[in-house]
Amino acid sequence: MKIFLSVVSFLLVSTGFSQDKNTGVIQGKVIDSETGEGLPSAQVELIQQSKRILSDIEGVYNFDKLEKGTYSIRVVYPGIPTQLVSDIQVKTGEVTTIDVVMYPPGEDSLTEVVVTARRITDTDQGVILAQKNAISVGDVMSSQSISKSTASNTSDVLKMVSGASIQDNKFAVIRGLNDRYNAAFLNGSPLPSSESDRKAFSFDMFPSNMLDNLTITKSATPDQPAEFAGGLIQINTKSIPEKNFISFQLGTGINTITTFRDRTSYKGGKLDWLGIDDGTRKMPSVIPSQANFPTNIHDQAKLAQQFSTSWGTTESKFLPNLNVQASGGFNKKFGKREFGMIAALTYSRSFSYNETVRRDYSNSTDPNSIQSAQIDYEYLDKNNVTNLLAGALANFALKLNDRNTINFKNIYSINSSDKLINRTGEINPLEENPNLIHSNARWFTSDRVYSGQLEGQHGLKAKGFKINWLAGYSNVQRSVPNLARSIYTRSKKIDPNNPNPYDTMYVANISLTSVGSSYGGGMFFSDNRESSVNERLDLTYGTDLFGKIKSEFKIGVYNQIRSRKFEARQLGYTRYSVTGGNVKFNNNLLYLPEDQIFAPENMGLISPGVNGNPGVGGFKLTDGTKASDKYDAQSILNAAYIQLDNRFTKHFRVIYGVRAEYFQQELNSLRDNKTELKINTKKLDFLPSINAIFEANKKTNIRLSYSQTLNRPEYRELAPFAFYDFTTNFVVSGNDTLKRALIHNLDLRYETFAGRGQLVSATIFYKNFINPIEQKSRADVVNEISFQNVPSATNYGLELEARSLISSIFKLDTASFFDKLTIYSNLSIIRSKADVSNVVGSASESRPLQGQSPYVFNAGLRYDNPRNLWGVALNVNRVGQRIYIVGNVNEPDLWEKARTFLDLQITKGFWKGRAQFKLNIQNILAQDQIFYQNSATERTTTKGINGFFNTIFIGNKNNNNNYDKNIDQQIWKTNFGTTFTASVSITL
After folding, report:
1. Do 970 and 897 form a contact (C-beta atoms < 8 A)?
2. The predicted structure's pLDDT at residue 54
3. Whole-angstrom Cα distance, residue 988 to residue 17?
4. Would you state the pLDDT for residue 38?
5. Per residue in 355-385, pLDDT tens?
6. Considering the entire predicted model, what is its pTM?
7. Where is 647: in which H helix or E strand?
8. 711 and 229 Cβ atoms separated by less than 8 Å
9. Could you please report the per-residue DSSP string of 133-174?
């Protein structure tokens, strides 16, 4: 890690000595209008200097060291009318990007087409063309769109994509399908799950400024991995820079309910500022393994004396958030060769404070029951959280010649969360004398992710042949060095006639022999390590079949080997006492506060027995680790595919083929009864797909696609390990009987690209699931969540998207104010139905899929004034209610209430665009997050316009699943504040 950061730092500094600030650059890409791909070996001439070069294998060209002035370029490619681009303005120290789109000859085609640079630079036409000519249904977010948005990390970027939403501020939900049905790839390599307890990747790990583009593929093709149903999320980081640069950014932020208020924390380690525990919290080396842990209580008492932990809390004030970024890059030409690199460091520390009201109820499953729901407890959690995100990126590229390029990309990310949760409340508040509770949890989690790829693109001398290859490695380390829990209780009421002083004091809930979620003094340690190695080879050959059918044949192979090792320990303090023996526990210790109760002097035998009296005992250390608390797993995926891309006529294109995937998965663990659990699954799947595209005209496509994809159980979902989540009061366990799910996907899409960044699309989709996997509360165990296969389910919906300049809509002058305003919006209306009629313990015969919202809405308005360097962006996002946890006959479904997010960004450039001030206001509405048990099957009849909109957007006129505080049981309610962030960036 130190070496990696040192190399990055050196490269950042070295770029400052290699820049040429006295000249400018013209660069861009020559693009085939029919495929959206770059045209290699196109001749590009800089007319003023009579200089000719050929575009490389990706269609990229570059003229550097140009004096300030006006230039023209001419692009020539065999069989295509020549393009002449005039009036290109080159400025000192800047890069002017000119992407040239080459159109095939038509009946009225000219031998040379003349356009001005103004028409090109005003639009992001490269991205628009890539989306228009993509072989599958999908959406693209370019670096330009990302930089002008309110996004601060990848999660924020995803929220702007049609049909996408974010759950828990970091997990992707696409087309109503939760995170387990979406796959994440970074620079072509799969990202392993960043979570120990779910098949998901936390997309808030990567800052948005490191992204070159983000693509969500929604229909499968044979050349892509087939394990997804919602979307295949492909994140690409930046590569060779357009020019040499060094950039710095410094930012700070405040939250309306956090900054400068009282903060409760605890003593951590010296490296907490970097998101890494320095060993302060970790289990001491003197603690023996579970197999060698002493069973004799006297030995456990001696062991407790060697285990020193700090349980005190500290008080301070929440400081403002901090964000620091530094990046640099350069490129250097050596004849036909070109070497480039880009490196970046980012560091962000943010604080959050919010309060969560938590309740639980009994007898709440039947809304028609005579017996009303009874509250079991009501807690108030005060959440003091410090989040840290540190990242480093180092990407290198070597262009050997116009046909051969090699890239080496690296990204390393540390994401940590340090929580102090203070819980107070009542247990059984309806009883005559309920118990009061006071509890604290100290919860530090650190995620470290590395992902690296070495890839090459090669164009052979034989026309039409391409070879692409990739070798990737990724590693995820997730550690919880010590999740420590304390629990104190006392009676609420005190007898005024016979008051007992001890009744006014909280007593620690410490067991005599047991360790678990019901007792204080518990400590949970876990370490999860996962690595993945993958290789890919693609061979492409383009030709004209029978002299008239433009075709591309593509074959490839893919291999991925994943391995995971997970281990957890659960230790806890218990009372040291021998019933009827020579040691008696000192009960006065239970009334000591947290910062004193587990002091070293209270461990083991406090004082020996004297004159036949028993000795005084303190606390002993007990191992509550279960046999199922560790597992190791491995999987191997071998895949091969064949894909054909035929353009039968000028307007009709078909991409079709089949992908074969052979998957083997192994998992080894022990059940709680210490019997062996060995899973060895082998499965061969043939997965066909077809994407047909009808190009009605040069601006309009009609797409129809069918594909077969799948979804496999994750290691954690199979493992018997059970984890108690302090925040939710749920235990999460696995199910070793899970099967892989098979999905049939159908998409019909209409899209039109009117020019100047305009886009209008409408998509109808349908999915049929066989054995879909869901998270569900167990009917046989209270407050425990596991995973199950549902026999079948369907998911279907409509996606609408539009993006345009205001001036284009009303055909206004391109020099007007409205030519600087871009409006965009997307709406998804989604329905799903899971057939659970034959599932034991289900509360109904059918219901929506877990995590599926009936609608997702995004809209935004963006103002860009490049002349005065002003920019304003306003974005709104709303996600409908959705099932968070599937219930059963004893516990109703737990729903998440719909919420609306509103974000604003204002930017102002200075110093000829080299410096920028940015103000972000996130979550302006600051709506509460509410989870509820939907206890009413029918609501009051809704009529008129409300009933109409409910029918369209919710699927039910009376909106029966919506939250009604007068009827439904509110389970969790969390408040949030608005965050104001200001930053200044400088590029040299």
Report:
1. no
2. 84
3. 11
4. 79
5. 999 998 876 655 445 456 788 899 999 999 9
6. 0.83
7. strand 630-647
8. yes
9. T-SSSEEEEEHHHHHTSS-SBHHHHHTTSTTEEEETTTEEEE
**Strands (DSSP E) found in 371-464:** 374-401, 404-427, 435-459
Neighbours of 43 (CB within 10 A): 16
* Banded model confidence at residue 815, pLDDT cuts 50, 70, 90: low
CA 214 to chain centre: 12
> How far is residue 703's CA from residue 696's CA, in Å, rounded to a whole number?
11
| First CA to last CA distance, the chain | 27
Query: What's the CA gap between 333 and 340, in Å, rounded?
Result: 9
Q: In whole angstroms, what is the distance from residue 701 CA to residue 830 CA?
A: 23
**What's the average model confidence in pLDDT over 714-731?**
89
Asked whether 568 and 629 are in contact (CB, 8 A), the reply is: yes
Q: Which residues lie below 8 Å from residue 864, measured CB to CB, with a gap of 6+?
A: 148, 820, 822, 870, 871
Q: For residues 315 and 595, give the distance between their C-alpha atoms in angstroms, rounded to a whole number.
A: 13
Is beta strand 723-725 parallel, antiparallel or unpaired with respect to 773-777? Answer: unpaired
Helices (H), 678-796: 715-718
Q: Which two tokens stand for residue 314?
A: 């500290």
DSSP assignment of 248-299:
EEEEEEEETTTTTSEEEE----TTGGGT---SSSSPPTTSPPTTT---SHHH
- CA Rg value for the chain: 31
Q: Which two tokens stand for residue 547?
A: 């002299």
Of the candidates 134, 119, 104, 120, the one whose C-alpha atom is nearest the C-alpha of residue 36 is 134
Pair 214, 371: CB distance under 8 Å: no
What is the identity of the amino acid at 345? L
The backbone torsions φ and ψ at residue 126, rounded to the nearest 5 degrees and listed phi first, read: -60, -45
- Amino acid of residue 89: Q
502: three-class secondary structure by DSSP: helix
Q: Which two tokens stand for residue 70?
A: 């006006």
Residue 829, both tokens: 């209306």
Main-chain phi, psi angles of 950, to 5 degrees? -60, -40
CA distance 765 to 770: 17
Residue 738 and residue 266: Cα distance in Å, rounded? 41
Do residues 979 and 919 make contact, with C-beta atoms less than 8 angstroms apart?
no
Rounded (10°) CA dihedral 229, 234, 235, 238: -170
Secondary element (H or E) of residue 929: strand 929-933
In angstroms, the Cα distances linking 512 to 72, 435, 446 are 85, 20, 33
Helix (H) or strand (E) holding 112: strand 112-116
Determine contact, residues 853/173, Cβ cutoff 8 Å. yes
Buried b (16+ CB within 10 A) or exposed e, 177-202: bbbbbbbbbbbbbbbbbbbbbbbbbb
| 50 backbone φψ class: left, alpha, beta (φ>0; ψ -120 to 50) | left
- Specify the amino acid at residue 874: L
DSSP 214-254: EEEE-S--TTS----SSEEEEEEE--S-SS-EEEEEEEEEE
Non-local (6+) Cβ contacts of 856 within 8 A are: 163, 164, 165, 176, 827, 828, 830, 878, 879, 880
pLDDT in tens, 162-210: 666 666 656 677 776 777 788 888 888 887 665 655 655 656 555 566 6
Question: Helix (H, G, I), strand (E, B), or coil: what is residue 35?
Answer: coil
949 sits in which H/E element = helix 944-949
Dist CA 131 CA 162 (whole Å): 13
